[in-house]
Input
Amino acid sequence: MKKIALAMLFATVSIFAKVNAVVSILPQKTFVEAIGGEHVKVTTMVLPGHEPHSYEPKPSQMKVLSDADIYFSIGVEFENSWLDKFRSQNKNMLMVDSAKGIKRMKMSAHHHEEESNKNKEHNEHSGLDPHIWLSPSNVKIIAKNIYDALIKADPNNQSDYQKGYEEFFSKIDKTDKQIKEILKDVKPKSKFLVFHPAFGYFAREYDLVQVPIQTEGKEPKPRELIHIIKEAKKDNVKAIFVEPEFSDKSAKIIANEIGVKVIKFSPLNPNWSQNLIKIAKAIAGK
Output
């Protein structure tokens, strides 16, 4: 009887114990929680206000990894230096590439560079764009990878994960339809300005063109600024996006000249669906 009681106790504990998941960025937290629901506890590595390009985890975060069941990577830059260290920290932790199956695109080059700087600029942006989560089609792939991993880590709650996955998949479709409705009167290949070229996957999905303002991470020179303004007027640009951590000085000058607003936008905003709809509305001038 004691053995049976113990077995039942362990089974009960197994059912109600949460899966400790760690993710690299905030949008992933949104995805994992949408699918995992009450069965997961999610910790985010890159804290709000920080950049995933060169993030260094805090000692307290490394300690959290010691008790983690799953780590969901997504291909942001800091992972190149830290994933092996995370594996060493907890060899029993399941390492999951949530970007598996997604074909990455190259970072956009800046259209206004002078000829003498082209080689330098090509080297700077020859890498692949990590911002895969700004595309509904990509998020469907990410969601399936998360779903498969949660089932593997916690098969007892598969039915709940399946329900969460299906509901989230439906939300992705709804978001996509809303964006298409917002952009229905926007001409194909319409351009929008960005300080940092983080919108490549969004632009490709909706047949748009992002035009980066920055030059090697710096504010454009006066001659380049004049060229950008001239092109923006010609192309009837309705949106200029600036990430919170970048200066918006040049963006404001351009905005004043062409009569549009500067929109502060963070690709790391956890409100994924609202974030993409906000982009679409700005591009459509709504």
